[in-house]
Amino acid sequence: MGTELGRPTGARTTATGGPLVAENEHSNSSTPAETLDLIAPPSTSDEKENGNFASDELSPPDAAAAAEDEKQAAKAETTEYPTGFRLVSIILALIMGIFLASLDMTIVATAIPKITDEFHGLDKVSWYSAAFLMTDGGFQSCWGKAYRYFPLKSTFLAAIAVFELGSLICAVSPNSTAFIVGRAVNGLGAAGIGTGAYTIVAFVAEPAKRATYTGFVGMSFGVACVVGPLIGGVFADKVTWRWCFWINLPIGGLSALIIVCFFRTPSAAQPVAAPWREKLLQMDPVGVVLVMGAIVAFMLSLQYGGQTAPWNSSVVIGLLVGFVLITVAFILWEHFQGERAVIVPRLLRQRAICISCLFACIFVGSYYLVIYYIPIYFQSIGNARPTMSGVYNLPLIIATTICMITSGMLISATGLAVPIEVGGAVLAVIAAGLLYTLDIDTGVGKWVGYQLLAGIGWGLAFQIPIIAGQASAQPEDISSVTAMVLFFQCIGGSAFVTAAQAAFVNRLVHTLPITAPDVDPAKVVATGATMIRMVFSDNQVPGIVIAYMAGIKAALAISIGGAGLGLVICLFSKWTRLNFAAVAV
After folding, report:
1. Rounded to whole angstroms, how far apart are CA atoms 87 and 216?
2. Burial of residue 249 (number of CB atoms within 10 Å: 0-12, 13-18, 19+)
3. How does it sit in the membrane (predicted)?
4. Per the confidence metrics, is the pTM higher than 0.90?
5. How many CB atoms lie within 10 A of CB 211?
6. Which of 3.40.1740.10, 3.40.220.10, 1.20.1250.20, 1.10.10.60 would CATH assign to domain 360-585?
7. Residue 127 pLDDT > 80, yes or no?
């Protein structure tokens, strides 16, 4: 993770992460401008032997002229970075975009009972989330290619438009089928918004400040994931579940308007020229289809296993075998695709990028699990309404938000990412273990403290895969690297939540015959966390709550493994500074 953005062999940066300019022993002037794309020409073999990029025979006037040219080029490049109100407006627009894309991952959770009441049935409920995650994960890298081969600004606006279209379809959907289609379109747009927002940050923020702004943009994800169920519950209870999607239209429109007015595509972000046929092939449609197929097969196998079908049933085994075969086919396809692959092998072979992708998949994925099951704990065990459940979640959201921003500032100030990453992972492992000890009679002080520690741990390390990945990429690869990290993050989140759901339901179903033998397990699963005290008698509820607690513990145990494996992964990172002076070899 210690490699530097766009650095050619033999180039150096200033100690402040400034432009990549050639050293010249006849001129000790260095430009303080911090730019993404100003890259020194590669040195010749003679220059390498002398240890300098400029010939020793260069006359002083020529050296002075060369230094002046470097200053002028750096000054011109620096002027591309927006400042003041314009920069704040762009960052605010990106925060709104990420907030909406992240909100749609969780807002529907507490609204599902109302949706199923209106659409009369539970047979398609699993697709309400699966459709979104399928396209969100499957199209991440495809959008990364789109940002490389099409104009950055118009592509981001197109992603917002697709997301808004999906929201509109969901808001007016007359049945489950239309709603699922809308969720799939939502996920397609959300994938483009996520990749585009982080890519734009890389081009509008000076290198020394990029980590800070990445932290600001990223904190909206943590906020959205926690408040999503709260907002969904309020809309479902007080107005209508359709407002979970109507709300996206004005906020998304405002984000798009700000981008139109204030964002100007820098020269470094100009699209790569290629024929239309080549652009289409670069999207790797076959790879996208394979990814979505693998995601669906995996999610459905865990949703069905032990719940609607035995684990040894032909349906579950067939889905698991299909998942393995499709995944193998995807890996082979990507290998032979080369630069056209949605997961570019050349980039994945870089140590920093590979570790960033793995860490995002495992460590960040385990955070999804925590933010999903802590509200279930409060609603099922603590008998809290969705609104109060959101209030009880505030320690987690506040700590996560503050530490995401703090992490970015610390990296900007020191250039050190790995110590923060390791420290965050250590705290997350401890917090995950403490959360596992939650029980029916756990006091307020404990669950507040455990959430604070979890927020600090995951918050400190959450954004580092994006920051380190971008710092290791050439300017033309930034969108692809960003998309790859987000792809693995989305896949990891989907896998962890789905696996946790399978563990939760299976443990719940197997515990109920012991703690509540007169209760139908299938009825408990279909009832939901917030309704068990309304549907079942006072004599049955205590046994159901005990079984629920056993299921929640089984789910939270997976987060311990995820955080621990994430800690192991980040230990393989290079302990060097990002964007600081270092000679490439």
Report:
1. 13
2. middle
3. Multi-pass membrane protein
4. no
5. 31
6. 1.20.1250.20
7. no
